[in-house]
Amino acid sequence: MKNQRILIIGANSGIAKSLAAKVHHNGTNHLILVSRDLSAYNSFNQDNIEKIQLANYSPDSIEQTVKRLEKGDLAKDKTLPITRIFICHGILHTKNIHPEKRLEDISLHAFEQVMNVNTITPLLWIKALTPLLTSPDECKITVFSARVGSINDNHLGGWYCYRASKAALNMLLKTAAIELARRAKNIKLISFHPGTTDTELSKPFQKNVPNGKLFTCDFVADKLLAIIDNTPIDGELSYLDWQGEKIAW
User: Fold this and answer.
1) Are 101 and 158 in contact (CB under 8 A)?
2) Residue 77 has pLDDT above 70, yes or no
3) What is the sign of the dihedral through the CA atoms of 243, 114, 180 and 134?
4) What pLDDT shows up at residue 165?
5) What is each CA distance from 179 to 27, 46, 85, 125, 182, in whole angstroms?
6) What b/e readout covers 42-61, taking b as 16+ CB neighbours within 10 angstroms?
7) How far is residue 180's CA from residue 220's CA, in Å, rounded to a whole number?
8) Is residue 60 within 8 Å of residue 124, measured between CB atoms?
9) 146-171 pLDDT per residue, tens
């Protein structure tokens, strides 16, 4: 699809950068990039880019960002609809947070941080954006989830906070999809598992990845863009992997 505005939230992540590069290369789409760090895009042609740099992803910052999008003060063509949104937030580990191997490793502080980034923040974006998107124009919203959020697929245990955050995210998206099917029939929600991708999130665990199963960001971006094009707006939440295959809840 051409002549559209495409919004990438959390635009400094590895996969987000690949998505942005592929969309930007098209030359006809208007990119909206939201992140705390947008320096990676200084070399991009700025003609079709709208950049919004935030200090944080607090509820107030999210609301203010959406107000700017609604106002369209940075867009060269304010009439272009936002038809694709990618919410790329995600945290698995930091200097102080590590995936738990046993019950004794569970930390309330870590749990709160992981839930805030992986679960609450994406929903706050959808909450704030929905009034802006309710129109005759289709809009597909992709939120980065993970296969480890599947309860049925949990055979190894561990990673308590991360698993819980992605399972909770899927439930919130499922609930939102039911509501949007009534009040915003033009919106489609996709919960996307990119597979193990060569990013900072996966680096500590890459040595355990089977040969051929560590994907490049470009590979995942290509797969995701194809999935979005081929996924109909049906009032449902789709929980899909990088192959476009359904994941059990």
Assistant:
1) yes
2) no
3) negative
4) 98
5) 35, 37, 18, 16, 5
6) eebeeebbbbbebeebeeeb
7) 27
8) no
9) 999 999 999 999 999 999 999 999 99
| Alpha-carbon gap, residue 85 to 131, rounded angstroms | 14
Residue 206: partners with Cβ closer than 8 Å, 6 or more residues away:
196, 198, 214
Give the whole-angstrom CA distance, residue 223 versus residue 217: 10
Q: Would you call 131 helix, strand, or coil by DSSP?
A: helix
Kindly report the length of the chain.
249
- Helix runs in 148-209, H state only: 160-183
User: To the nearest whole number, what is the mean pLDDT of the chain?
Assistant: 91
Cα separation, 236 vs 239, whole angstroms: 10
CA angle 123, 231, 242 (to 5 degrees): 75
pTM: predicted TM-score of the whole model, two decimal places = 0.93
